[in-house]
Amino acid sequence: MKTLFSTILIIVFAIGIHAQSRFENAKKQASQNKELILLNFSGSDWCIPCIKLHKNIIETDEFKKLETENVVVYINADFPRNKKNQLSQELKKENVSLADQYNRKGLFPYTLLLDSEGKILKSWEGLPSESVLAFSKEIRDIKENQK
């Protein structure tokens, strides 16, 4: 009987952990570490400005410092079109939910800087015109003003 109860408890616990979304986890992490959340909506295999944004900003060492220095938690809500790039059903569902909440116009790329509760602090429609250094500095400045 104890074994059956333990097994059921483990299964319920595992489902509960798995059911937590990346966004909920990001909000918790941001709250604990006093970080901001950078949410990016992209079409990674069809949207040229999205591809440029990732190459010229998101994938750079300068941007990665924002993550390693506990400035931002980064989430990419991707909407690829090519069959070979399709996401899991769970991830698709989460991305649609994020789009329903934050990107009802369906803009790509669309980047939001959020506080740990999910409140929008800044948004960028399309490819940001500033350099990665200016983009990172703007995020750092916003974080400093949050204190």
TrEMBL record:
It comes from the Bacteria. Pfam families: Thioredoxin_2 (PF13098). Gene3D superfamilies: Glutaredoxin. Its EC number is 1.8.-.-. GO terms for molecular function: oxidoreductase activity. Residues 30-127 form the Thioredoxin-like fold domain. Keywords: Oxidoreductase. This is Disulfide bond reductase DsbH. The gene is dsbH.
